[in-house]
Write a structure and sequence with these properties.
alpha/beta, five-stranded mixed β-sheet, single chain
């Protein structure tokens, strides 16, 4: 029982001290509840799994260099090709897994039509990865 120096004969006087006993009781009950429920939440089935060693297959796509010269001639990996040979090479490349990337080198003086024909043939043949290769501008 708390004895206060401001004790009066009045029973209706305000109590100025906080009774910590109920608060401590509630905290202890909560602690016990959490300690009991934590092992229940971790109810995993124990299985003896086999062990195996494997390496992830890291297949990188190959790069195919396609050059379009100023006169409109097309070169596939440094080999000149006519439109029929180009179409056959694109079809063969599209069937590979993973699909190769086309790096398109176009001469500065080539007509846009020649580049568009190569791009159209690649798309029609099923190749979707196509990138233009350029030279960085010289610093001035």
């Amino acid at each position: 029982m708390a004895v206060s120096s401001f004790q009066t004969d009045d029973d209706d006087a305000l109590m100025t001290e906080i009774n910590m006993t109920p608060l401590v009781d509630v905290m202890l009950v909560l602690l016990i509840v959490f300690l009991v429920t934590i092992p229940v939440l971790n109810h995993a089935v124990k299985v003896n799994l086999p062990q195996a060693v494997s390496q992830p297959e890291d297949l990188k796509p190959t790069n195919i260099d396609v050059s379009v010269q100023a006169d409109g001639s097309v070169w596939w990996n440094k080999k000149e090709m006519n439109p029929a040979e180009l179409k056959a090479a694109i079809t063969t490349a599209a069937a590979q897994t993973p699909q190769p990337e086309i790096h398109l080198y176009a001469d500065r003086a080539v007509r846009y039509e020649a580049v568009a024909n190569v791009m159209s043939a690649a798309q029609a043949g099923g190749l979707s990865k196509l990138g233009f290769v350029t030279q960085p501008a010289a610093a001035q």
